[in-house]
Amino acid sequence: MDLADNLATDPYGVYERLRTTSPVHRIQGTDGQPAWIVTRYEEVRAGLADPRLSLDKRHARTGNYQGLQLPPALDANLLNMDPPDHTRIRRLVGKAFTAGRVEQLRAPIRAVADQLLDALGTDGSAELIGAYAAPLPITVICELLGIPRERRGDFRGWTQALIAPDPNQPHAAKEAVKAMMRFFTGLIEHKRQTPADDLLSDLISVRDAEDDRLSEDELLSLVFLILFAGFENTVQLIGNAVWALLKHPAQLAALREDMSKIPAAVEELSRFEGPALLAIRRFATEDLTIGDVTVPAGETVLLSLSAANRDPGRFADPDRLDIDRDTAGHLALGHGIHYCLGAPLARAETEIALTALLERFTVLEPDGDDAAQWRRSLRARGLKSLRVRFRAGQPA
Ligand code: HEM
């Protein structure tokens, strides 16, 4: 069994073993190249804020990093960038992606959640990732960006082809990127002529009005980044959160008893079972010391957010889910200049998804011993499927 298998079946056990021997280990990265994995809270947090760890691929030692092969027009995104470009774009996006925009989305998110739950009926069983956790965030992203309703079916198809590629259709992912680029280029042109009350129209006006402006490629890359960063992580956090609560019935009961604890519970669930096992890979711009090792310039550093969040040096009894604990400083949404841009939206979606689900079903249980199927990934912690039994109304 390799590290990816071990991480997929028992990430926290693997991390604990790594963390107790040394804060930094040399491993084989996802692209087959060597990388350094950092697992202790202090070092992970410091690494996230260290300007000597760059997100720009040009700092990778030649031949060391291939990465995701995106067309150049999509590569100009925040998660490939350092200051000053990162600072400029982040400031411009901040003007459009406001707290008010997220607040505006709360009612539509709740409406979509209720519709999805209506479709499940009042008593039965369902696969919750496909029926609830996945369609909710994709609809929210469509609302956020102002994607017309009649194009949302196409949009879901492309997203699916990219995020969960079908091995029998090797070219589907590339075709989906091309189709989406055509679609967004057309949509940007349309919204430029006819602006509406959505994030994309606001981004276009920021792009067109400011001196310190976004380039056309930067705008397109940003839309793609918002889609990818915003969709998959949220699906996984909702799924992981539901699963963690089902596995901890006393915590679930305490939450049902006092639903005002939902926001605090979402923080703890993010710490306990967050979807991003690793931050985006970073490259050492110079030889640097992390913990007890020297990482040579140009080598890849993987900061494990999940390992840091389960570090007993930072969180007492970290493998216990406790919705009443102080979760301040958890790293599930990152830290430093790349801290999740969509954090308020991620929180709102997860809070609403849990509230709507628990209000609707007074009985919610795993359906069978193998109800949860995890994905196999070094990078992401998430469920392929989660079968549940549910019943609306009073508990029997
Ligand atoms: C539960 C859901 C989410 C999780 C766990 C999550 C996690 C993260 C993390 C860990 C980072 C930092 C990566 C790093 O420093 O290596 C990040 C960045 C980012 N996230 Fe999220 N995210 C979530 C939802 C969203 C949503 C809903 C959006 C937008 C709609 C979004 C947009 C972004 C963007 C644009 C960045 C890059 C920010 C930058 O580089 O300045 N995320 N996210």
Characterization of the model:
- By secondary structure, the protein is α+β, with helices and mostly antiparallel strands.
- It has one domain (3-392): Cytochrome p450 (Orthogonal Bundle), CATH 1.10.630.10.
- The chain has 16 helices and eleven strands.
- The chain has helices at residues 3-9, 11-21, 41-48, 72-75, 85-96, 99-118, 128-133, 135-145, 152-163, 172-193, 199-209, 216-247, 249-257, 262-273, 305-309, 343-360, and strands at residues 24-28, 34-38, 53-54, 123-127, 282-284, 288-290, 293-295, 300-303, 361-366, 372-374, 383-392.
- A hairpin with a 2-residue loop joins strand 6 (288-290) and strand 7 (293-295).
- Helix 6 (99-118) runs parallel beside helix 16 (343-360) and helix 14 (262-273) crosses helix 16.
- The radius of gyration is 21 Å and the shape is globular.
- The structure holds protoporphyrin IX containing FE.
- Report how far apart the termini are: 44 Å
What would the principal axes of the Cα set say about the shape? globular
CATH architecture: Orthogonal Bundle
Provide the gyration radius in Å: 21 Å
Outline the low-pLDDT stretches: none
Strands, count: 11
